[in-house]
């Protein structure tokens, strides 16, 4: 998804809290990061606390003990550097396909953000090395499986920590896979020799699931606006009514997202000759439209309000310092459970649910265009010569397949829990899994909306000589620049659907509508 603001200005870490937009700028658009002037001072101060415990004969978790179910073993001083190396190496146990670059960059940024709070006890040079690696565009190879969303996103974060040690595989700025040591050397970065507590501090957080949440929120905000545009165009093309979107009707049910979506739809439908052609009762005897048209603001509005709730959770998490044990403000080194990903996992699952429902209502509008019994005078399947041509028949099949998959992806991951670490970690969030399936759902929603836009564009054009609303016309023209959305004989359809998908993905559709409507919600 696009971000219309400048991407290359550095994001400051360790001062004011990061925003969702900051995460996207670094993760997706390659913005550099810099530490705030006070961050290193705070980090060095709390490092002194950890070093003071290193010689203590009393065991301290993460400093002089094993980990998880092995925390009962006291580790002698001469083995503690090995303890940290062994922790990272053993926990870098991911499997499966490689995770996307933007996800890994988000994860790295968010771990840096926690380290910069000074609550984890790492050394300043370790933090500075992490920053240097991210700014050099070096991205550790992280795998699909390995996090249970509790005790942090352990395997994903460990693969990143391994790169700090100069070990494992990474991708350089050009995307080439190479040994981490070679990539660091080429960038002039010296690998880190981990000291007490540092291995644990590098891997113990909700950073992967939180990073994916921030990316999904950004994408879904654009997609729900796109859904309003598509719905309005479908109402227009299906000779529906915009009366139900009136502001006074929305005010009777003061759900904030619903009002915003209805306003978008009113703007897109404004000054539509197609709509005006059947505004009086004599030319339109229908009492009311089908739910997929009439209730579009209610569904999209509920999606909007869910996104806003998820954003609040993300913002709270962005303000957090998650580690175990943590160095408190009064200097205690205290065990805690803040690494548990439940709050993030719940909203990740919630977003998968609303994304599936937004796709479902979009697919229903598309299907309505294709059925001659319900499309108010359009040819079957919007075909040029029905029977010889199949029109958009199978495009709806493709939509239906994706919507069905999204319904399966909406099954919550956060209700599952598999005990681990010899029952020491006996309840986990599965937040990473919730985030991974949400990414697939967001991509599918993008494609479903693109197909609705293709159907609506063709349907509107088949209403000629009636002309569409100016905003609809602008969207149709933008889609026509990248693909073919005009009626006509059957053609190879997949490239046109892919072009529409790209136009949704990069914000072309929203931009085209806003050229006429002004800023949409």
UniProtKB/TrEMBL annotation:
One of its GO terms (cellular component) is cytoplasm. Keywords: Histidine metabolism, Lyase. GO terms for biological process: L-histidine catabolic process to glutamate and formamide; L-histidine catabolic process to glutamate and formate. Its EC number is 4.3.1.3. InterPro entries: Aromatic_Lyase, Fumarase/histidase_N, HutH, L-Aspartase-like, Phe/His_NH3-lyase_AS. The keyword Lyase applies. Pathway: Amino-acid degradation; L-histidine degradation into L-glutamate; N-formimidoyl-L-glutamate from L-histidine: step 1/3. Belongs to the PAL/histidase family. NCBIfam families: hutH (TIGR01225), PRK09367.1 (NF006871). This is Histidine ammonia-lyase.
């Amino acid at each position: 998804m696009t971000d219309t603001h400048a991407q290359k200005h550095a994001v400051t870490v360790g001062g004011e809290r990061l925003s969702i937009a900051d995460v996207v700028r670094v993760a997706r658009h390659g913005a550099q990061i810099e530490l705030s002037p006070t961050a290193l001072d705070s980090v060095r101060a709390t490092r002194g606390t950890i070093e003071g415990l290193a010689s203590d004969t009393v065991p301290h978790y993460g400093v002089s003990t094993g980990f998880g179910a092995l925390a009962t073993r006291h580790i002698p001083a001469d083995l503690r550097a090995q303890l940290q190396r062994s922790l990272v190496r053993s926990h870098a146990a991911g499997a499966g396909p490689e995770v996307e670059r933007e996800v890994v960059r988000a994860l790295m940024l968010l771990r840096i953000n926690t380290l910069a709070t000074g609550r984890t006890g790492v050394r300043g040079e370790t933090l500075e090395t992490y920053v240097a690696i991210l700014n050099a565009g070096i991205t550790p190879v992280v795998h699909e499986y390995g996090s249970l969303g509790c005790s942090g996103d352990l395997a994903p974060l460990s693969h990143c920590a391994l790169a700090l040690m100069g070990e494992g595989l990474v991708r350089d700025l050009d995307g080439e896979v190479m040994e981490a040591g070679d990539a660091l050397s080429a960038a002039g970065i010296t690998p880190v020799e981990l000291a007490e507590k540092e291995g644990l501090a590098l891997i113990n957080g909700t950073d992967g699931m939180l990073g994916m949440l921030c990316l999904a929120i950004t994408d879904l905000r654009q997609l729900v606006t796109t859904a309003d545009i598509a719905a309005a165009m479908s109402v227009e093309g299906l000779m529906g009514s915009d009366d139900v979107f009136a502001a006074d009707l929305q005010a009777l049910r003061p759900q904030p997202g619903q009002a915003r979506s209805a306003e978008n739809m009113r703007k897109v439908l404004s000054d539509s000759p197609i709509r005006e052609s059947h505004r009086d009762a004599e030319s339109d005897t229908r009492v009311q439209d089908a739910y997929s048209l009439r209730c579009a603001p209610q569904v999209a509005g509920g999606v909007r309000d869910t996104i806003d709730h998820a954003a609040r959770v993300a913002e709270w998490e962005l303000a957090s310092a998650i580690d175990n044990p943590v160095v408190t403000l009064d200097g205690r080194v205290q065990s805690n459970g803040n690494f548990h990903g439940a709050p993030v996992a719940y909203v990740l699952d919630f977003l998968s649910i609303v994304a599936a429902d937004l796709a479902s209502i979009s697919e229903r509008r598309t299907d309505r265009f294709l059925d001659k019994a319900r499309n108010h005078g359009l040819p079957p399947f919007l075909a040029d010569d029905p029977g010889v041509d199949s029109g958009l028949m199978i495009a709806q099949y493709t939509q239906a397949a994706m919507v069905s998959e999204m319904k399966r992806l909406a099954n919550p991951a956060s209700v599952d829990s598999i005990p681990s670490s010899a029952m020491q970690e006996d309840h986990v969030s599965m937040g990473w899994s919730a985030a991974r399936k949400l990414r697939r759902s967001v991509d599918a929603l993008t494609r479903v909306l693109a197909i609705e836009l293709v159907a609506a564009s063709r349907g509107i054009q088949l209403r000629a000589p009636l002309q569409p609303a100016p905003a609809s016309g602008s969207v149709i023209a933008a889609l026509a620049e990248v693909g073919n959305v005009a009626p006509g004989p059957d053609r190879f359809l997949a490239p046109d659907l892919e072009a529409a998908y790209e136009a949704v993905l990069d914000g072309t559709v929203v931009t085209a509508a806003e050229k006429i409507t002004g800023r949409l919600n």
